[in-house]
Amino acid sequence: MAKKSFLEQLINSPLAAKAGVPQGYPLRRYKQGEPLLHAPIVVGGQGRLTDALNTVLEGPYKLLKAEADSPRAGIVFDATGLTRPEDLNQLHSFFHPQIKKVADNARLVVIGTTPELIDDADARIAARALEGFTRSLAKEMRKAATVQLVYVDPAIDSSNFSTVESTLRFLLSGKSAYVDGQVIRVTPAPAEAPADWEKPLAGRLAVVTGAARGIGAVIAETLARDGASVICVDIPQAGEGLTATANKVKGTALPLDVTDPAAADKLAQHAQERYGKKIDVLVHNAGVTRDKLLANMDDSKWNMVQNINLIAPVRITEKLLAAGALGEKPAVIGVSSTSGIAGNRGQTNYATTKAGVIGFVDSLKDRLAEIGGNINAVAPGFIETDMTAAMPTGPREVGRRINSLQQGGQPVDVAETVAYFASTASTSVNGNTVRVCGQSMLGA
Fold first, then answer.
1. CATH fourth-level superfamily of 19-186
2. Of 61, 151, 178, 350, catalytic
3. Gene3D superfamilies of this UniProt entry (predicted)?
4. Quick one: pLDDT at residue 1?
């Protein structure tokens, strides 16, 4: 660990906190063997999913009555019954007395009906209004509490509510510690619950590119923790780190340049030769930055970023799909960035690719659904890595704090979101881009 500069020590000191410099509240992250939440949860609202919510949640969580005075670590509100703008006052009526009773690191989740799939004008307006409510409430919460919105397809009811369970378990746990103010859409596609929720990826074969270090290495570790076998991929020059990651996760190392035209063939061949099966989870994490103002950016900096960050994931996935090299219920996960959503000065090349990853997800969601799979993306914000540690103190400290949680995230926060997407229990979660940024003030 590099020694902190005087300025960095000052900014993070009790004196700075007293002066009003945001310090952030310690995040409660997931640990195997610990309860998903550290206090009971309250279920509120009255819609088509209320009974199903109570049934699904009463197993892994302790339920608490809304009028109780004891702290609650989770609140789930069924807003599917709000079908007119006049009904939105129920949000205030329910949440107003609840907010002062929430524990630290609380998880608040609102369940609504996907607006674009609603024919009735009033109901569509009411459903869309939930985004403004949840995103604003997320910015009001304190002590690391988060607020999310889950839109469920109108075809989902009590008979197929299991499609929503993996999303609730993710959001109502420490796995979503750095996910805040997000909107997740759930489809009615069949989802297969794992035999053991502690090992939701048991029997799955995963590929993680850029796995030699940083976020990629932690993604590999998290997928392995959840039961997956992992093929760790990185460029040959990163061989030492790649081997270390593969050994740590008891997986295999595959030195490979993802821009190689034969990359897809080599991935499929390795999966068959070493594991005797097809690829179930494909995580496109490999990426580079070559920052320059566009006026000063030469072709090499533009092309390298485009080829690695965007073109390689698109072509590899297309070739694996065409070859039938993906397994049953395949999950494809792209790594985008908040830079691709909000833009960033000096990153026209990088932001182009990260916005392209979102387009990649949107373009292939129907095709993956046709074969029983899904495709989603994570969009990290300020994550504590070697790259951010090398930033000048001022920009780094500002970057850490311009989000609702007032701190930087950890690589495991990105990895937990990837693992959520990778499970067969999340097959109904398709076409989403979830920001892992503590609800950054940049972007939507």
1. NAD(P)-binding Rossmann-like Domain (3.40.50.720)
2. 350
3. NAD(P)-binding Rossmann-like Domain
4. 46
